Amino acid sequence: MESTREMEARIGAKVIRRLVIPCALYILIGAIDRTNVGFAALRMNESLGLSSAQYGFGAGVLFVGYMLAKYPSVLLYEAVGMRRWLATITLAWGICSCAMAAVGSQWELYILRVLIGFAEGGLSSGLMLYLSQWAPERYRASILAIPIVSISIAQVIGAPLSGWLLDQPNPFGIEPWRMMFVIEALPALGLALFAALYFPLRPTEARWLNDAERAWLTANVIGASKPKIAGEHDPERWAALRSPVGWTCAAIWYCILASNYGIMFWLPQVVEGMAGLSPTQTGLIVALPWAASAIGLLANARHSDKTGERFLHIALPALAGGILLLGAYLLGAGLPGLIALVLGGACTGCTVAAFWAIPPQLLKPGSLAMAIVMINMVGSLAGATIPPLMGALRQASGSFLPPTLLLLGVATVSALLCLVAREQARRTLARA
User: Fold this and answer.
1) For the whole model, what pTM was predicted?
2) Can you tell me the distance from the alpha carbon of 373 to that of 59, in angstroms, rounded to the nearest whole number?
3) Which residues, including other chains, have CB under 8 Å from residue 101's CB and lie 6 or more apart?
4) Pick from 46, 200, 389, 405: CA 20 to 30 A from residue 415's CA?
5) Domain count across the chain
6) Is residue 231 part of a domain?
7) Which CATH number does the domain housing residue 186 bear?
8) What is the b/e burial string over 288-317, where b = at least 16 CB atoms within 10 angstroms of the residue's CB?
9) 189, 91 contact by CB (below 8 A)
10) How confident is the model at residue 181, as a pLDDT?
């Protein structure tokens, strides 16, 4: 007779192939469309007459819309189901991303960035909630790591592609940075149609599972047996807002995203300024830390699953990443600086999957959807505050040293918060 471990492994492999990888594709394309403004800035800032502070505000203001859409988007997900929800938001952000090619002023940039953020606002929350209803406990961090690692892969693909597109002459006389926005937005339009046709709403509808697998998944994964209905009364739904553990998790997530978004939106300008490279060369260099980040994220998630420890798998890499990024800046152009940059990117990016294994473990099932929304809303504040703050520091100092020190400070706070959360978790589990 087949053991539980064998059943769990077989189902986990199917879920990864059939659901996790397709979901990862949406996060990958969304990440490219959110962050390609970092490469556009190499030419767009001069074309539109943007200062460092104005660009930083434009990069970060996306997350105002991103934050405002979190809860409404999850309510829409609960009301209409995975397929229609994902198709709608993907089509919306694809159209807005294409419209970035027509930007003519800083205010048009700000408005479109807010609209892209609003369209994408519930993407990560909804997909994490969806996949948590399919993820066996022993594979939770690894399953959630794959969509998350696609953010790093998006930079590995998007950075060289964006740099190359900026170097291409256009026969229609359109500025290359404008054409870059159009080309990189087109995949979202195709994914909208795919979403409308593909995703099962719950395990009982998955034709690629046999009867025994559907029954096991329904019985053994929290939330798999019955999806929440928007507006359905649940006394646990708002419990996350009263939970110290929930708010500590939200603060940690803020710090994690602050470090990652600080790198995403400013690294192309840092690299080009340090080494005087072309956009294509800059893209290839920028891709290296994100490639290392993808490898580090998967390795860290696997080790976290193997040991069952989550908090130090966030704290130690976060602190190491901040120190290495400062070292990369101080070392400057050259092999030692590049090695520090690559290792710093690996450490900074590898904390994410271990983090998302914590909320389902410590919060009640009825409050998980709201907890994911709350955590992501607080995390969105990182995108709305850190890139503009880095731009202001850069403009005031004329140097990237103060922004780099800011990222090191954020990483240090993240590590300290993880120690607080570990103690809170110990107490929570002891009372259970």
Assistant:
1) 0.77
2) 22
3) 174, 178, 179, 181, 182
4) 389
5) 1
6) no
7) 1.20.1250.20
8) bbbbbbbebbbebbeebbeeeebbebbbeb
9) yes
10) 95
